[in-house]
Design a protein that fits this description.
Blueprint: H1 13-26, H2 30-37, H3 41-54, H4 65-94, E1 98-99, E2 102-106, H5 108-114
Antiparallel strand pairs: 1-2
Helix pairs in contact: 1-3, 2-3
């Protein structure tokens, strides 16, 4: 074993901001600052890069921290809505309201009961 944990550490925004400020304002070497703060140079390099994007100095198309968080929130929301729809469809199939082979269609018996133009 290499002694490293499979879980990543979470750092507060203030901690990240302070580390980035040392690199940016004081012109300190990323490796030195990372060592002082007890983080990997790769993590600090990523924070510095994200700070540039957040200030509007990043490459075209790069997402700001706010945009990344909004994207995460929307994806979470979509997953919840999709799961809710799936569970509703599953219940309709289980109760015989929808045809399992074609969940987009009511079963023939239900179509007849509701007078659907597709009734057979």
């Amino acid at each position: 074993m290499n002694g490293k944990s499979n879980t990543s550490k979470r750092y507060t925004p203030e901690f990240k901001r302070d580390a980035v400020a040392l690199v940016r304002s004081w012109g300190r070497n990323i490796t030195e600052v990372a060592r002082e703060f007890g983080v990997s140079p790769e993590a600090l390099r990523g924070w510095v890069k994200q700070a540039k994007v957040d200030r509007g100095e990043g490459p075209a198309g790069a997402l700001t921290s706010y945009e990344k968080e909004e994207l995460r929130r929307l994806r979470r929301e979509n997953r919840g809505e999709i799961e809710g729809t799936r569970s509703k469809l599953k219940r309709l199939v289980e109760r015989g309201w929808l045809d399992e082979d074609d969940p987009g269609l009511f079963t023939p018996a239900r179509r007849r009961a509701f007078g659907s133009p597709n009734s057979q």
